[in-house]
């Protein structure tokens, strides 16, 4: 959980696309403890990169019902 703020920043704005993908995936691995990243993951659903969109969607699913409520 301590990594959530740093991973969120990486996922939303790192210039390296693979780093953004890994950060978004890691947020999903944290699961419900990454609830603070929901807004960023939702924003990533509009990203041009289809892989990052898919990872963001999967991460939201792993966070659980709290992600659907937003």
Give an account of the 3D structure:
With 70 residues, the chain is mainly α. The chain is 70% helix and 0% strand. The longest helix has 14 residues, at 17-30. The two termini are 20 Å apart.
User: Which stretches are low in confidence, meaning pLDDT under 50 for 5 or more residues running?
Assistant: none
SSE sequence, one letter per element: HHHHH
Task: Tell me the overall shape.
Answer: globular
In helices, the fraction of residues equals: over 70%
Number of helices: 5
The major sheet is characterized as: none
Distance between the termini: 20 Å
Mean pLDDT: 93
The chain-level structural class is mainly alpha
> Can you count the beta strands?
0
Instruction: Assess the beta-strand content as a share of residues.
Output: under 5%
Radius of gyration: 10 Å
How are the elements arranged and paired?
Elements lengths: L3 H10 L3 H14 L7 H7 L5 H14 L1 H4 L2
Helix pairs in contact: 1-2, 2-4, 3-4
Summary of the model, kept short:
This protein is mainly α and 70 residues long. It has 5 helices and no strands.
